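Justification of computing resources. Each target in the renewal requires a structure prediction run like the one illustrated here; the chain below, 149 residues long, is used simply to show the kind of job we budget for.
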Amino acid sequence: MQIWVDADACPKVIKEILYRAAQRCAVQLTLVANHPLTTPPSRHIRSVQVPGGFDVADNHIVNQAQAGDLVITADIPLAAAVIANGCQALDPRGELYSEDNIRQRLTLRNFMEELRSSGVDTGGPSSLSQKDRQAFANQLDRFLLKQRG
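Resulting structure tokens:
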């Protein structure tokens, strides 16, 4: 089991939580981005730089992640793709995506995309709060404990 991170849009504070968890649990953490990343020196943490382009990092994660891996992403289509491959997906705000909720999330995402493309200002996501960070850390800990169990 390893953790994959859609690192292009992953908040720094979430990456720091992941770095500590990778060290503490001796689990492989791989950050994928289309720009160079600086990661702490660790045999458990690595970064992969992919070429720029639409969904290149997402496609790399989908092609490399194995069933049972955890993928950290706010990208709903990426979450849906890795869930279909037997992985788990966790949003940086602490929401664990599942087969039960991913279709609803995709439908909502597509609806909001249609609104935006028709000129409706839907606003963006709120800033990551302390509550969001805590929810993420708690959900990550639960996942890692279940893997050890």
